[in-house]
Amino acid sequence: MGYCISQQNHMVVFSSLHGLNGCSKPEGYHSGTCHCVIIKLPGLRLNCISKCDLQTQSCLHWRGGHGAQRNVHFSQCRGLQRSFCIERDNEIDQDEWSSEDYRMIVDRNFRQHINSKKPSSSSLYLDGPFVENNEETNNGILQNFCSQGRLLDASRLIDIMARRNQIPHFPSCTNLIRGLIRMDRIDKAAKVLQVMVMSGGVPDIITYNMMVGGLCKRGLLRSAIDFLDEMSLSGCPPDVITYNTIIRSMCDKGNFDEAVGFWKDQLRKGCPPYLITYTVLIELVCKHCGTLRAIEVLEDIAIEGCYPDIITYNSLVNFTCKQGLYEDAALVVHNLLSHGMEPNAITYNTLLHSLCNRGCWDEVDEIVMIMRETSHTPTVVTYNILINGLCKVGLVDRAINFYNDMVFRNCSPDIVTYNTLLGALCKEGMVDEALRVLHVLRGTNCYPCLITYNTVIDGLAKKGMMEKAMGLYGQMIENGIIPDAITHRCLVWGFSRADLIEKAVDILKDMGKRDHNAGNKAYRFVIQGLCKNKKVDLAIQVLELMISSRCRPDVAIYSMIIKGVAAAGMTKEANKLHRKLIEWNVLKEGTTLD
């Protein structure tokens, strides 16, 4: 009599030649030593050790290793039907297989050898209470497990249902698969997905793409590629996201040639020539292997029936321009023209944006001339790029020339055009010109927005033209535009610089009503001005406004107020206030007011 334990497809099979006895002895023996065997599994060593009284029972003990400490006891008792139980002591399970998995597998194989029609209570223990449930009951439990986040319990239940030929609830399977992938339990997710598919379910493309992403994240690219065939067979073919995920994963590992070969293979298998996937591949090759290699790939993949279009070329132009590789950009445009295509407005705008940022104004003028000679004349976006680039470097006169040119060519400026010009004019101190542009803006189909008014008000305030700034402030309110914290801060700073501190205080009070925050610097500037003018009462009011607006006064502000009180001839009050602030831990002991 002997025992054989083997592992087949993750199933542990126990077999016995004579009634599943754990130890053997000739009949009539009352005591002795059992036969002991050493059982080996991959990564697991089971030592069979037994010392027992053979008068009462046959027994088999083993101790398991590999990341877990398990003491397992199989016993066969006289006077009872043949049954087996597992006792676990001090179990610390660090392996993927839990004790429930062992119980399910042992029970399944033992039941094939047990002759009784009705399973005993011990054998039912191996699968828990779920083994006697019908399909509907188990599906109800499965849904509860998923809703409670007990994903590992749910995956074990699905395994039990599969062995009992029960069809699991497909929506729960989908949620379970996604949850397991998020837990980085891709192996268990794959098992649940297999059960779902074999039961007639069809996972959606999101679930499949999460599986592919999980495999790629683990570096299992070959498994991810093999998974594509399974997707097609299940009735949910891969989509553009599936292919993009695999290609990006290959390129992240530096396998660019493999990525190109993979895409060519998919095209030969009848995959739709997804433009996005094609463009992603070309971009990655261009980024890591250079423009020449990217153009070679363009030509190579075109043989497979996947042809580049203007979007692909624009992507390459954009990348090369961002890198400042204008010779490569010219090479891309030349290849574009050689295929019978011509650049569109996006191509030209991309080139102009990059050239403006680098101050290549001669090249800018040349491209603008080319655009005027083609069917793709400069658009409002083109002019905005030019005006913005010129204003950034202070070339406001040239920017105004382009503005006049676009009006002459019946290209209507938009609010971006006007705001860009107004910002540049105010920055250069040309506020009168800014007011004239604002007047022109009111006569167009564009309407001044909050940014427009804030830009001009800030310019006027910096020049000390507070009367005009307040006139514009009232005008924006009349037009239904509500001032924000930026508007009020500009006015506060303007009045403070113009030494109109009381006006600044009025604006601060208005800000408090609107729950606007002026900022510590603005409050400090106003308090300082009030203290210099010996208006301590008003300074204290501003301090209260500051605290109510959730701004925390610092030592400098308190020192200003104390000095202001002292300067007003109230030295005793200043000293008393100083001591109080120290008691309240606002000022540190020994703080001087020099």
* Radius of gyration computed on alpha carbons: 40 Å
Mean pLDDT: 79
Counted beta strands: 6
Helix content: 55-70%
Low-confidence stretches: 1-106, 108-126
Structural class by helix and strand composition: alpha+beta
The share of residues in extended strands comes to 5-15%
Q: Characterize the largest beta sheet: strand count, sense, and whether it forms a barrel.
A: 4 strands, antiparallel
Give the N-to-C terminal Cα separation: 102 Å
Q: Looking at the chains present, what oligomeric state does this protein adopt?
A: single chain
Shape field: flat
What strand order characterises the main sheet?
3-4-5-6
Separate helix tally: 28
Chain-wise SSE layout:
Blueprint: E1 3-8, E2 11-16, E3 38-41, E4 44-49, E5 57-64, E6 70-77, H1 99-111, H2 121-127, H3 135-147, H4 151-163, H5 170-182, H6 186-198, H7 205-217, H8 221-234, H9 240-252, H10 256-268, H11 275-289, H12 291-302, H13 310-322, H14 326-338, H15 345-357, H16 361-373, H17 380-392, H18 396-408, H19 415-427, H20 431-442, H21 450-462, H22 466-478, H23 485-497, H24 501-513, H25 520-532, H26 536-548, H27 555-567, H28 571-583
Antiparallel strand pairs: 1-2, 3-4, 4-5, 5-6
